[in-house]
Design goal:
This protein has 4 helices and no strands. With 145 residues, it is mainly α. α1 runs antiparallel to α2 and α2 runs parallel beside α4. The longest helix is centred in the first third of the chain and has 35 residues.
């Protein structure tokens, strides 16, 4: 039984690490696209590193959120707000990355207004993922205590 638990935890860490790398990759693409817009604050190594770090944290923490036990969910509360927050955040962040990859691959000329929209999708989505992850884990730890 202990071997099963160890293997299960190891698989979970590997899965979370893979998701964190996907988030880092998405952050890299969005940062690369933002740097093409030639806006001074977005054209620095620090900004790019921050985007990669935010993506890593968001995808590690915010995608696999603990669910509340079925006994605690009433008939009216069939929709878990934390789950919706995580899903919406993941969708926004990955759409921003997809748009950035498209613009990079097809060498689209950056349009500042559009770049800010894509960056706000990325930041909003990543923030939603992080918030969902923290809320879900806080909720899970308060059930245990």
């Amino acid at each position: 039984m202990q071997d099963y638990v160890l293997i299960s935890r190891l698989a979970h860490v590997i899965e979370r690490s893979g998701l964190a790398m996907a988030g880092a990759m998405c952050g890299t693409f969005v940062a690369a696209q933002m740097s093409k817009a030639n806006v001074a604050p977005f054209d620095s190594g620090g900004f790019m590193a921050l985007m990669v770090l935010v993506g890593t944290i968001a995808f590690y923490i915010g995608i696999n959120v603990p669910r509340p036990p079925a006994a605690q969910v009433s008939e009216r509360e069939r929709v878990d707000a934390v789950e919706v927050l995580s899903a919406a955040g993941t969708f926004l962040a990955t759409v921003a990355a997809l748009v950035s990859v498209f613009a990079i691959v097809f060498d689209e000329a950056p349009q500042r207004a559009w770049e800010f929209v894509v960056a706000s999708w990325w930041l909003g989505g990543a923030t939603m993922q992080i918030a969902a992850g923290f809320i879900g884990r806080q909720r899970a730890s308060s059930r245990v205590a």
